[in-house]
Amino acid sequence: MRIELLDLKIASFNINGVKARLPRLLEWLEETRPAVACLQEIKSQDEGFPIAEFEKLGYHGIWHGQKGFNGVAILADGEAPREVRRGLEGEPEDEHSRYLEADVFGVRVVCIYLPNGNPVFHDGEPGPKFAYKLRWMERLRTRMAQIRAEEVPAIVTGDYNVIPTDRDVWSPPAMASDALMQPQSRDAYIRLLGDGWTDALALHNPRGGVWTYWDYQAGAWQRDHGFRIDHALLSPELADRLVECGVDKAHRGREKASDHAPVWVRIAA
């Protein structure tokens, strides 16, 4: 049964293992109650995804799992997401579970976990993982253009593994050699925005300084040495309805938390 909404809260959370972080994930869902929750790095095969735990809270879901790593899912409060696509076209041999698309509450919701891309170089040449990242971003752009052509309210959200600008990282020099900040990665991201998509968090925080990820190492969380790699890109039809957006930063500081914090947007109905 579809729930009536005064507005629509759509969130994204790289959970870093749905089973390992299940108590934190359920806690977050109960406390913040997004209408739609997109999850990345569920690190679970399809048959092992704990859907029953989410159903107890009233959420329905679809998921695209993979053993040990990757994996994405879309949960919806009181309504079953209607799957549109899983996986991106363009590389039939690509078996990574990184893309899931569905219609729910009148919105096209796309959940992505974009490749990390490190190491950038291998034996002095561009590494295969970085090349895969750039190809994946171009394939994503192709699909996003198709969605744009449909002129539907749409959101493409998740872990993009791209730090868009120097304003989005605690120390640009510290990350300068990382795949997340390479000019090619940033250029590919900028092309998405140039195609007409709106970066919600950047729009509402033009000065930057908003982080969504803090490494487990070197006291990054305690020192607030983070960066922004989790994004919510909105089609023009949805960007016009954007009310507010934010990061649930406090959830990163809880016991056995993910190294990411959830991001969310609130859309006028």
Secondary structure layout:
Layout: E1 7-14, H1 22-32, E2 36-40, H2 51-55, E3 59-64, E4 72-77, E5 82-86, E6 99-104, E7 107-113, E8 121-122, E9 125-126, H3 128-150, E10 154-159, H4 172-175, H5 183-194, E11 198-199, H6 200-204, E12 213-214, E13 226-227, E14 230-234, H7 236-239, E15 242-247, E16 263-268
Parallel strand pairs: 1-2, 7-10
Antiparallel strand pairs: 1-16, 2-4, 3-4, 5-6, 6-7, 8-9, 10-14, 11-14, 12-13, 15-16
Helix pairs in contact: 3-5
Keywords:
269 residues; alpha+beta; Deoxyribonuclease I, Chain A; 6-stranded mixed β-sheet; 7 helices; globular; double-stranded DNA 3'-5' DNA exonuclease activity; Endo/exonu/phosph_ase_sf; ExoIII-like; metal-binding
CATH names the topology as Deoxyribonuclease I, Chain A
Mean pLDDT: 96
Query: Counting H and I runs of at least 4 residues, what is the number of helices?
Result: 7
Order of helices and strands: EHEHEEEEEEEHEHHEHEEEHEE
Strand arrangement across the biggest beta sheet: 3-4-2-1-16-15
Number of domains: 1
- Record field, number of beta strands: 16
| Highest CATH level, the class | Alpha Beta
Q: Quick one: overall form?
A: globular
Q: What is the CATH architecture descriptor?
A: 4-Layer Sandwich
- Cα-to-Cα separation, first versus last residue: 17 Å
Helix content: 10-25%
Strand content: 25-35%
